[in-house]
Amino acid sequence: xxxxxxxxxxxxxxxxxxxxxxxxxxxxxxxxxxxxxxxxxxxxxxxxxxxxxxxxxxxxxxxxxxxxxxxxxxxxxxxxxxxxxxxxxxxxxxxxxxxxxxxxxxxxxxxxxxxxxxxxxxxxxxxxxxxxxxxxxxxxxxxxxxxxxxxxxxxxxxxxxxxxxxxxxxxxxxxxx
Length: 177
Prior knowledge:
Blueprint: H1 2-18, H2 23-55, H3 63-87, H4 93-131, H5 139-163
Helix pairs in contact: 1-2, 2-3, 3-4, 4-5
């Protein structure tokens, strides 16, 4: 779930800023990738419930599961709002320009929650593994902790790339000296 939702979400976030395409094409790519990430997140939650039900494990017993449901709900609200205001039927130009900073901030908050929740998921998995006999300082435990740290650092770099200033596009057209 982490690799599908988190990385497609990152591709959607970064695509709007970095793709050298027309604005309307970038908006469409951004919208479709976020829709894919939302669908993958919903499928991931469905599969978690299915796995728990088939294994006889209780549902919604951990902070990870509660935050995960919340993140997907907030992500869905963000996607619906973005679709209605920026894509179809589009809000007025004033509404769109007023909404852009809030859209970015709310999206970053949801992304930070998703990264934090992914880290909680690693902790939960490690706890299960340790309770079933995994060595506390074994190589598997270090791998899980290292992966969680990489996820946090990766998330921080995504946040920094979004809040940094976009490069100024140079005008490569012909001009007289």
